[in-house]
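Translate sequence into structure tokens.
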Amino acid sequence: MPDFPELAISVRQPWAWALIHAGKTHENRSAGALKWMVPLTGRRAIHASKGMTREKYEEARDFMASELGIVCPAPADLKRGGIIGSVMITGVVNRSESPWFFGPRGLVIEDPQPCDFIPSAGALGYFKWKPADASIVPPPARWMLPATDRLPQGLQFDMIWPDPRADCPTCKGNPYWGKTLSSWERCACVKKAVQ
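Result follows.
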């Protein structure tokens, strides 16, 4: 990788994707975090961190859609645990008119360049990254998968014909109701159909 920056900054998804692909102009950091990021400016690799919570993903996705008209990729499609590209960091600001600036400080981002995904461990601040084995890349969490991929093993919607769920007064076609899909509550219409 000639001329690829040796220093990286780790950013959670989908913000890392937005830096490389959606024109995100600022990477927001606290003043305390910036004191460890020396030298502050220059080309830096963007490391997409492994962690991504449903709440933070939805918050970022909704912001991009409502404020900027940007469609964020599905969570399972976002690469995590590696280098996804590089950007030029040209300075730091404590205020900006950019909708991407939330403060209290913002690294000014220019010239994003995507690259093929390179698995790599992350760290805080700027860090010297190195390629790692693909085994460090986390699989998508259950909430990140499309709804049909979250079904309990052995149960598939197309196995149930005719589909009893569409007219079910209890679940109204969503047999896995409740606050989260992690509880795997089944509506009686599905239990009855698979017995």
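Note: Residues 54-68 form the longest helix (15 residues).
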